[in-house]
């Protein structure tokens, strides 16, 4: 008998064709499929003609379900965990279950695929080397302001999830916390018919969205450029600057810039400008 596994299976965030071949194979082969909403996931499974036995695992019963699922694994059954859309555990249930199953000594294996914020970040044009995923902001305005204020000086790209009901309010709260000129990108309805990815200052984004109610519909990822995180393509790295300064002690500025340009590969004019500045 093969080892029982809890698979964490990512499902599409709109376009059903994004369900990977491996995800289909795993969902078809496991003994049970643990789903956040069994009716919703049932529709996905029937689209792919997969007949699985379903268990419901959602925010309100996850902790109680752990024991049952561990017992199933103990009897040699493999289980797939899915959420309504995207990757389970990412602003979705599953954390307690995965921890409990790992602590009980069973194998947990991911079947990666769609994740709304990764898809949005990859297409946003915002710096993606360092980012902070915040997920949903608190619903209450006081708590929301507190979270946003604490992020105001953060230099990383900030990534939020938002729903149709609160998108304008949240953008306004971001404008208050980060300033109206902060650049942000709204990624709406990714992989679906009305997919829209639009970037502008927070003030302009709010104007644009308020002028067109259609832009307020659907599911959103909001990505905000980090504080003072404009890409400085002209920036000179500290080692090159050190070489320039050493040379400038011995040589006239133009000569120092020329020699430093040869050593470092930076443009002579850019180095000369740096010396003069
Ligand atoms: N687990 C999911 C994932 O991996 O992205 C996220 C689940 S969370 C409950 C749902 C939120 O994800 C939505 O409110 C929205 O902010 C974002 N989202 C999901 N699908 C999306 C899509 N197609 N386009 C834009 N945002 C989406």
What order do the helices and strands follow? EHEHEHEHEHEHEHEEHEHHH
CATH topology of the largest domain: Cobalt-precorrin-4 Transmethylase, domain 1
Determine the structural class based on helices, strands and strand pairing.
alpha/beta
Helical amount among residues, as a percent range?
A: 40-55%
With strands numbered from the N-terminus, the spatial order across the biggest sheet is 3-2-4-1-5
Written overview of the protein:
The structure is a single chain. Helices cover 42% and strands 18% of the residues. Strands 3-2-4-1-5 form a 5-stranded parallel sheet, with helices on both faces. Strand 6, helix 6 (141-151) and strand 7 form a beta-alpha-beta unit. The N and C termini lie far apart (72 Å). With 277 residues, it is an alpha/beta fold. It has helices at 21-29, 38-47, 62-74, 95-103, 116-124, 141-151, 167-178, 202-210, 238-250, 253-264, 268-276; strands at residues 5-9, 32-35, 53-56, 79-82, 107-111, 131-136, 157-162, 183-188, 196-201, 220-224. It has 3 domains: 5-114, Tetrapyrrole methylase, N-terminal domain (Cobalt-precorrin-4 Transmethylase, domain 1, 3-Layer(aba) Sandwich), CATH 3.40.1010.10; 117-224, Methyltransferase, Cobalt-precorrin-4 Transmethylase, Domain 2, CATH 3.30.950; 238-276. The radius of gyration is 25 Å and the shape is elongated. The protein has 11 helices and 10 strands. The structure holds S-adenosylmethionine (SAM). S-adenosylmethionine (SAM) binds next to helix 5, strand 7, strand 8 and strand 10.
């Amino acid at each position: 008998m093969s080892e029982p596994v809890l698979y964490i299976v990512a499902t599409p965030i709109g376009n059903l064709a994004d369900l990977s071949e491996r995800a289909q194979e795993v969902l078809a082969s496991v003994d049970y499929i643990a789903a956040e909403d069994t009716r919703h996931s049932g529709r996905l499974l029937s689209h792919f003609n997969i007949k699985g036995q379903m268990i419901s695992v959602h925010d309100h019963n996850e902790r109680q379900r752990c024991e049952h699922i561990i017992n199933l694994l103990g009897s040699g059954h493999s289980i797939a965990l899915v959420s309504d859309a995207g990757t389970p555990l990412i602003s979705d249930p599953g954390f307690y279950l995965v921890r409990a199953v790992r602590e009980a000594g069973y194998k947990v294996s991911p079947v990666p695929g769609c994740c709304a914020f990764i898809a949005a970040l990859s297409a946003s044009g915002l710096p993606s080397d360092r980012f902070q995923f915040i997920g949903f902001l608190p619903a209450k305005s006081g708590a929301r302001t507190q979270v946003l204020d604490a992020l105001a000086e953060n230099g990383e790209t900030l990534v939020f999830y938002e729903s149709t009901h609160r998108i304008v309010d949240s953008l306004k709260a971001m404008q208050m916390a980060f300033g109206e000129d902060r650049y942000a990108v709204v990624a709406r309805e990714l992989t679906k018919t009305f997919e829209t990815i639009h970037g502008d200052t927070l003030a302009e984004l709010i104007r644009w969205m308020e002028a067109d109610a259609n832009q307020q519909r659907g599911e959103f990822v909001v990505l905000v450029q980090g504080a003072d995180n404009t890409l400085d393509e002209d920036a000179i790295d500290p080692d090159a600057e050190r070489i320039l300064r050493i040379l400038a002690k011995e040589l006239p500025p133009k000569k120092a810039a020329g020699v430093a340009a040869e050593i470092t590969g930076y443009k002579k004019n850019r180095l000369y400008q740096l010396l003069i500045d």
